[in-house]
Write a structure and sequence with these properties.
By secondary structure, the chain is of the alpha/beta class. 34% of the residues lie in helices and 17% in strands. It is built from ten helices and ten strands.
Length: 318
């Protein structure tokens, strides 16, 4: 590591440790933050942060094995785990840590709504990783793929669904904007949908290299701007999980073009209205963009259970 990178890391570590300097508290609540190019990660951070007290801090997911808190941390650990030394690394500010998992001592995790990337499974579920998960079980798996991987190692676990299903919509009851948002769709799909609606159509991209250059506060503000658009939308068409699930929570009509039923979509695809790109372009989808149908309510039991589990944890640990 160059001297400049070493200096940058030292300052980051110093700033992190200073966040814990509060003599009146025995511990701090924390949520997972991100430095990726995908704002969907920050939407997951918002979903977690809203359950925690204002004094909560953020823990950088990518550096979770290296942080050295000066007091105990009760961390609400949801989201995707994870990029590391031998996996896709998006950061410009530093090199990946030598050891990505398990989280550092001093972090007391509450695992819920986690997804283990297939490439990360051997690291997360090493002998040391399995012992760590068992110490903090039961583990809430975001999808059935992750649940299966955990249960192969006899780790007590359950399907929790995704925490973004717990987001709220304060605009319910108000007239919706006459806007259809299309998130990360190809040009042919955009043209087709524009030909089928009188509403204004706005395309949105959830991934940008610029995001990796923003600090946590700015990332969360940008994510909130996008979420507010989806809360007020006439409808949304997307192939991003953390657009589709928030829209279910917002009661914003949403059509998923993911059409996947395995991996990180397993267990979640059943609560979405989905179609393939080919079905959309062939006109085989019963979805009126000007008068969109209501979403299925199948997500509600998952949402209610998530709210109860996280609220109970916060109350118990407070």
């Amino acid at each position: 590591m160059s001297n400049l990178k070493k200096l940058s890391f030292c300052f980051s570590l110093l700033n992190f440790c200073m966040l814990f300097a509060n003599e009146n508290e025995d511990f701090r609540f924390a949520y997972i933050s991100y430095s990726t190019t995908n704002v969907g990660d920050d939407i997951q951070a918002i979903a977690a942060k809203r359950f925690l007290p204002p004094s909560c801090i953020n823990l950088d997911r990518d550096l979770i094995s290296e942080v050295m808190p000066s007091t105990r941390v009760k961390a609400l650990m949801n989201g995707w785990y994870m990029h590391g030394k031998n996996m896709f690394w998006e950061r410009f500010d530093r090199s990946p840590p030598e050891k990505a998992w398990p989280p550092a001592a001093g972090i007391d995790p509450f695992f819920i709504s986690i997804h283990l990337d297939g490439q990360f499974v051997p690291t997360a579920l090493s002998e040391e990783g399995v012992a760590y998960f068992k110490q903090y079980a039961p583990i809430g798996a975001r999808d059935l793929f992750t649940l299966e991987e955990l249960q192969k190692k006899d780790i007590p676990s359950y399907f929790s669904g995704c925490l973004t299903l717990t987001l709220d919509n304060p605009y319910l009851g108000n007239p919706r904007d006459e806007i259809v948002y299309l998130v990360d769709l190809d040009e042919d799909s955009v043209r087709y949908i524009k030909s089928k609606t009188k509403c204004k159509v706005i395309t949105v991209a959830h991934c940008s290299a610029v995001l990796a250059l923003l600090d946590n506060e700015r990332r969360l503000k940008y994510a909130e701007v996008l979420l507010d658009k989806y809360r007020k939308a006439k409808c949304v068409v997307a192939n991003r999980l953390h657009v589709i699930l928030p829209c279910l929570a917002f009661e914003t009509p949403v059509l998923s073009l993911c059409n996947g039923k395995t991996g990180r979509f397993s267990g979640l695809s059943e609560i979405m209205r989905s179609c393939s790109r080919e079905e959309l372009l062939a006109g085989e989808v019963d979805f009126d963009f000007d008068n969109p149908p209501e979403n299925s309510k199948a997500y509600l039991p998952i949402r209610e259970n998530l709210i109860k589990l996280v609220t109970d944890w916060v109350n118990t640990e407070s």
